[in-house]
Amino acid sequence: MADRSTEAWYPTAAYLYVLHLDGPALAWEYLRRHPDYRRDWLRRRRQPEVAQVWGLRLLEDPELDARDAHPVWFPDHDGTLQLYPDTDPPPDAAIFEFWHIPGHKHLTHDGKRLVLASRWPGCCVRLALAQGLVDGMAYLYAVRACASPCASYHTITAELDKLARVGGATPTATARSRPTPAALLELHTLQALDATLAGASLRETAEGLFGTEAVAAGWYADSGLRSRVRRLVRRGQSLMRGGYRRLAQFD
């Protein structure tokens, strides 16, 4: 059996950043592993219609993980805050102040508007800036109309609360409790997916995820460990091949 311990997917520590990703960032992690997506990128097929097949407005470099990538989803993620100029503002209207938005900022022009992603420890907000909105201008938030608008309102309110909690000072660190089972599931799923894409067997995958001792003690035909690894591999392939759209919350 080949020694897989030197391969990039083997050390679980390389995936710890996954524990802190939100839905759209996790969606990108699965999409960027899709062989056909990577092929479209390498072929320089950058037309908007090609990107939209994958649920993006523009193709993003699949070599960039979610810490450095800034994919712009199509249509917008439910939590994207849409900002428009206020054409009839009251005297005390709040004004748009770009540099007062907390976090490390990244601007992308998607062909129609500027999309701002701002990140700080433990948080990320995404804002779509309509044409004509400039610094110092009164502005308003827009919520897309739908049959059941309450869910949209609650999602937008949650994003606004992120900004309100930070206020004028961006935190330099954040304290976290133990990872949630859901976060650990994504970490193990991505590691198992990478192992499969690298040609590793189920047993080799299990050794990378759970250690050689655990595999030596619990690997047999109908073992729970074997079933668990098989489920992780199937889940990763399913998310990579379209299920990521649910994580991005636009399907």
User: Count of DSSP E strands?
Assistant: 5
List the uncertain runs: none
* Shape type: elongated
Helix content range of the residues, please? 25-40%
**Computed Rg:** 21 Å
Major β-sheet profile: 5 strands, mixed
Summarize the structure.
With 251 residues, the protein is of the alpha+beta class. 39% of the residues lie in helices and 12% in strands.
What does this structure look like?
The chain is α+β, with helices and mostly antiparallel strands and 251 residues long. The protein has 2 domains: 12-19 and 178-248, no CATH class; 74-176, no CATH class. Helix content is 39%, strand content 12%. It is built from 8 helices and 5 strands. Strands 2-3-4-1-5 form a 5-stranded mixed sheet. A hairpin with a 2-residue loop joins β3 and β4. 27% of the residues are buried. The model has no long low-confidence stretch (mean pLDDT 91).
How are the SSEs placed, and which strands pair?
Elements: H1 23-31, H2 35-42, H3 48-53, E1 81-85, E2 104-109, E3 114-120, E4 123-129, E5 139-142, H4 149-166, H5 181-197, H6 202-210, H7 212-218, H8 224-248
Parallel strand pairs: 1-4
Antiparallel strand pairs: 1-5, 2-3, 3-4
Helix pairs in contact: 1-8, 5-6, 5-8, 6-7, 6-8
